[in-house]
């Protein structure tokens, strides 16, 4: 497929197998193969499409393997451009599938919901965010991402060693983009497979959508995860292998840029609230500056922007910088004065915001 890079030997038994995402501006997902005597282990599988499957099978053939020989696949997170081909891989091989327990739970939840239930929940959430009814109707009528085809076999918690004989590949739990996002540290090779957690130019979508949002703090988790990755042994010299864009060295500096971007965004939101008074999620989101004008964004982008804004509002609540008012059916937020709260930017470690920069 035009625009998809070739298979590449990265040395030391590591290969990149770019798998296209047809019709998506991201273009492709880097699936990585680590070879061993008992068959290769994949990191992610790619999007569920015939062209994607053909690319994965051809990539494996290019490195001297058949898909039937795949030993297993570690899934960095549950999103469809990373897990879409798990069903076909399982049907074609005896490969195990491993994922962090938190994203296994999300996968089970998604597969337990029928389409009508998912649409009803989506309508409830967007209505509570203050979305106009026309936008809600358009969003419900739009395309949906399918849940992962299958539930993984193996839970891979933080620090667990991957079943890859002769190599020291370990899970690094990096929640934020999803509750169970994993990076994989190849300690004996000086490499870090970063999934969507640390990307060299863009930032992943960090979303939350009240009121059906639980008590989590995905942005707070994400910032903590960035610091954890930057603190890995030898982090300054680690070669980072992301799922998108290009390779880079040393995650700490990039993690600091990403954190600074989110701190700057948090400051913009608090400034808006101070000048606005009680505001719905729609009012806050539509009042912020995005790379594209709000009026020129589609309803799906509005939804993703609102989810990311909600994640910033949750962190502001946790820091005592904002408070939720209104009702559960239509919450609003106000800025508050909190003398003991951390200063905005105190965790800074950025470029302008853009909703849904990577997959949902």
From TrEMBL:
Listed SMART domains: Lactamase_B
Q: Which residues form the Metallo-beta-lactamase domain?
A: 28-244
Entry protein name: Glyoxylase, beta-lactamase superfamily II
User: What organism, scientifically named, is this protein from?
Assistant: Nocardiopsis flavescens
One Pfam entry name: Lactamase_B
What Gene3D superfamilies does this protein's entry cite? Ribonuclease Z/Hydroxyacylglutathione hydrolase-like
Q: Which InterPro entries match?
A: Metallo-B-lactamas, RibonucZ/Hydroxyglut_hydro, Sec-metab_biosynth-thioest
